[in-house]
Amino acid sequence: MAAYTLATKGLKVLCLEAGRMIEPHKDFHNHKPPYRWPYRGHGKPGQYGKLPQGLEWKINEWTDLLYTIPHDEPYALAPGAKFTWTRLRAVGGRTLVWGRESGRFGPLDFKPKSMQDGFGEDWPITYEDLEPYYDKTEALIGMSGGGEAVYNSPASKNALPAFNARCGELLIKKGAAKLGMKTVSMPLAVLSKPYDNRQACHYCGACNFGCDTASRFSTLEVLFPKMQKMRNFTLRSNAVVSRVLMDRNSGKARGVSFIDTTNNQEYEVFCKAVVLGASMVESLRILFNSRDREFPQGLANSSGTLGRYLMEHVAFNQLTGFFPELAGRPSTNDDGPGANSLYIPRFNYTKKNNKFLRGYRFTVETGCSMGPGPGAELPGFGSAYKKRIKELYPAAVSIGGYGEGLPFEWNFVEIDPDGLTDRFGIPQVRFHTNAEYDNAFALRDEMYGQMEEILRASGAELLPYEKRNPYPMGSVTHEAGGARMGDDPQKSVLDGWNRCHDIKNLLVVDAAAFVSHPEKSITLTIMALAVRASEHLAEELRFSA
Q1: Are 80 and 434 in contact (CB under 8 A)?
Q2: Can you give the pLDDT at residue 545?
Q3: Bridge partners of 344?
Q4: Centroid of chain to Cα 325
Q5: Given this model, what pLDDT does residue 352 score?
Q6: Measured between alpha carbons, how far is residue 484 from residues 166, 292, 338, 517, 540 in Å?
Q7: Residues 6+ apart with CB under 8 A from 270
Q8: What is the dihedral of CA 455, 461, 466, 469, to 10 degrees?
C-alpha cells in the first residue's frame, strides 16, 4: 500500500519482496475439493513437523507452497513463551489468504487511556485524522457491507451492498436482539458486485486458499497490476532485506542491504527514504539487525521500547451447536463470500465491569460447508451416526469472538542471544510473550457466558465444550506493536506520521506501529495508516527536492 501510494504521487519506488511472484492460476487451488488431494488436504503425516497452535489450520495441501514452514525456518522462544509466527514470503504476502474483515477503528480506540479507562497510552492521532484515509483505502480495495454505523464502529462510506445473511445468521440476529445486542453486516474486502474491472464473488467459499478472480482484495491482484504500468515503479522479488544502511554524517537512512535468494548474493540499494512494511515481526527484526555505534540496542531505539508492548486479540475456541428447527432440511450451498455476513459489534461501552478492561465482538458461522458441521463433535459410528450427521449438517452453528489485547512491556521480541540465524545467515528473533494474563482470562470468561446466552436465545442447542486458555500471540495472525507511535520520543519509536523519532526518513507502516489493539480486525487500519504516512512522506520529499 505504501509503494502504491508513493508511486502514484510520482516518486521513484523500488519495492523489495522477500518471496517469489505468485501466479494465481498455477499457485492457487481454491476449487480443489479435499478428496482430490493425496492426503485429503492435510498433507503427508509429519510433512510439516509439529505446527504451533494457530498454524495447523493455515498450512495444508492448498497452501503449503505459500507459507513458511516453521521446522524449515525455525525461530526461538524464551522459556515459557509462546508465539505463533505466520510467515508468507510471496508477492501479496498475507493478503493472499487473509480473513478480509475490514472494520474501522473508532474514536475511542485511538484514545483508550484518556477516553476509556486510563490504561496504556493514547495514539498520537485521532479517528478524524485517519478518517479520510479510511475512505481512500476502502475505495481502492473494494468493500461490501459495513454501511451501518454502530457506537465506536464507524460505517464505511464506500460500501457495496452487503452479502445476504444465511438462515442461521438471521436466527442469531433475532436471539441477540432479545438480549439487547445489535447485529449488523460485516464489512468485507470481497466484491458483492463487479468493481474496478474486477469480478464479483462467485461464492466458492475458499478465500483462505486464494482467489483466482480477484474478487477479494489482495495486493497481488489489485495493487501490483496498477503499479506495473508505472515507469517509476520497480518490483524486485526474492530480495530478503537484512538491515537498513545509515549515513553517519547526516544521521539519516541511506538505503538497505538485501540478499537475492536466487543466487545468495548480497546487494545494497540507496534511496532518499526507507519504508518498512515487512509485517510486524520482520520489520522489528530488520531494525534490531541494523544496530550500529549510534544505536547499539537496535536502530531508532533510543527509547528502549523497540520490540516491546506486543499485542494480540484475546481469542479461544468457538462454541458449537445446532438449530433444531433447521435440522433435517435438505443440504444447500451456503459457502457465500467465504466469511460470515453478519457480526455483533462491541456493546459493553456503558457497562461497568471491575473484572476486565475494554471489550469484545462476536462472529457466527452457520449453514452447510466443506466440513462435517456438528458431526465432527459427536461420538458414534455406523448408519445411525451417518443419519444423525446428515440431519444436523444444515443446522450447524458456531460462535466465536475477539477481545481487546492489552499492551505490556514484558511481552517483547529480541534477536536470539544464542545466535540462531535463518538460512541466509541473518540473525533470527526470540519471543518473550504470554497471552495468558489476568485481563485475558476475565475477558474470556465473560465472552463464554455471553456466547452461551446468545445461542440459547436464538433457539440453538449447545454441544458440550471445554474452556480453553487464551490462544498464543500470533495464532490468529493479528499481532501488533513493537514500534509504537507516540508524541513522546522517550516512550515510543514512531511519531504520528509513522516516522522514526530518531531517523525522520525511516518509516514503519505495518502493525508494529500500533499503540492499542481493539477488538476489531487490524488490516484496514494498517493500510489506511500506510496511505496517510506515504502521502505525507511524498509531500516532504517534494518540498525538500
Answers
A1: yes
A2: 62
A3: 362
A4: 36
A5: 75
A6: 40, 21, 33, 11, 22
A7: 245, 254, 255
A8: -10
Sign of CA dihedral 201, 207, 213, 215: positive
For residues 358 and 404, is the Cβ–Cβ distance under 8 A?
yes
Tens digits of per-residue pLDDT, 391-421? 889 999 999 999 999 999 999 999 999 999 9
pLDDT of the residue at 157: 87
Instruction: Tell me the CA distances in angstroms from 208 to 30, 174, 211, one per residue in order.
Output: 8, 29, 8
Question: Which among 451, 346, 397 is positioned nearest to 166, based on CA atoms?
Answer: 397
User: What pTM value is reported for the model?
Assistant: 0.96
For residue range 238-274, what is the model confidence (pLDDT) as tens digits? 999 999 999 999 999 999 999 999 999 999 999 999 9
Q: Give the three-state DSSP class for 11.
A: coil
How many other CB atoms are there within 10 angstroms of residue 75's CB atom?
A: 20
Measure the CA–CA gap between 340 and 402, rounded to whole angstroms: 14
| Mean pLDDT computed over every residue of the chain | 95
Separation of alpha carbons 261 and 268, rounded Å:
14
String of DSSP letters for 304-336: S-TTEEEE--B--PPEEEE-GGGTTPPP----T
The confidence score (pLDDT) of residue 205 equals 86
CA distances from 451 to 84, 116, 178, 402, 458 (A): 26, 24, 13, 12, 11
Return the H-helix or E-strand segment holding 506. strand 506-508
Rounded to 10 deg, the angle between the 438-457 and 167-178 helix axes is: 110
Of the candidates 451, 348, 346, 358, the one whose C-alpha atom is nearest the C-alpha of residue 404 is 358
Pairing of strands 412-415, 396-403: unpaired
**26 CB-near residues (< 8 Å, 6+ apart):** none
Show the beta-strand stretches assigned E in 404-479. Answer: 412-415, 429-432, 461-462
Query: Which residue stretches of the chain have pLDDT < 50?
Result: none
Q: Beta partners for 298? A: none
What is the per-residue pLDDT for 350?
84
